[in-house]
Specification:
Length: 227
């Protein structure tokens, strides 16, 4: 079975109503990134950080997978499919994709500030001050903040290196180290980019599909299934 790896970013969830970071002029839903998505922000104003992610979590729960998320699931009939996503939403899972690796964490989970292996599902909409892990330390959102290591990076690079087909969708490829993952793909792989706008950096050997994910992905999926 041929292996397809999909590297997805915020753009794939745009048509589900979730705003991309780059579309919001350096502000993310009216917040400055450095105030809400960095370890420094957590030290300075934990309440604001929790509030920001509580709002994002509410939006994610209200959103639904779109035609792009759903079409990618169909690929599993014919291919071994791995989704490597920079997104913190669960729309790939809710669409039905079986193998989803979240590079930047998951908004529906919390984790211990004492032991990063202690990860919990957030049952309610909110995570608040005073909610603690089993060791007694404050829980934080299970998110990789700017300036933090990306724990899944090495495994993601391995997955990309084994791809027969790579699909890069809805990402500006501006945020490292995730953007560097495209460099691990084999020269023999078939490579596609689906994006309505140009992406940062040179992608030699990629076929550029100039379309929104909701149109470009279902078309590409049909083409690959027929091939
Ligand atoms: N279909 C496909 N692509 C789209 C669509 C759409 N409907 N709408 C926008 N895009 C594209 C934009 O052209 C842009 O290239 O999606 C990309 C979004 O880029 P970013 O906002 O930079 O998102 P991403 O690449 O996922 O960002 C990486 O930065 O926001 C942080 O940690 C966060 O994981 C995220 C990381």
């Amino acid at each position: 079975m041929k292996r397809i790896v999909v590297l997805s970013g915020a753009g794939i969830s745009a048509e589900s109503g979730l705003k991309t970071f780059r579309d919001s002029d350096g502000l993310w839903e009216n917040y400055r990134i450095e105030d809400v998505a960095t370890p420094q922000a957590w030290k300075k104003d934990r309440r604001l950080v929790l509030q920001f992610y509580n709002e994002r979590r509410k939006q994610v729960k209200a959103a639904k997978p779109n035609a792009a998320h759903l079409a990618l699931v169909q690929l599993e009939e014919k291919f071994e499919v791995h989704i490597v996503t920079q997104n913190i939403d669960d729309l790939h899972e809710r669409a039905g994709s079986k193998k989803v690796l979240h590079l930047h964490g998951e908004i529906l989970k919390s984790r211990s500030t004492m032991d990063p292996h202690l990860v919990y599902t957030i049952e309610k909409h909110e995570l608040n001050e005073g909610e603690k892990c089993e060791l007694g330390s404050q829980l934080r959102p299970h998110i990789v903040w700017f300036g933090e290591m990306v724990p899944a990076l090495e495994y993601a690079a391995y997955i990309v290196s084994r791809a027969d087909i790579l699909i890069v969708v809805g990402t500006s490829l501006a945020v490292y180290p995730a953007a560097g993952l495209v460099n691990y793909v084999s020269p023999e792989a078939n490579k596609y980019v689906v994006n309505p706008d140009p992406v940062v950096g040179e992608l030699a050997g990629f076929k550029f599909i100039n379309a929104k994910a909701g149109i470009g992905i279902p078309e590409l999926v049909q083409e690959l299934i027929k091939s």
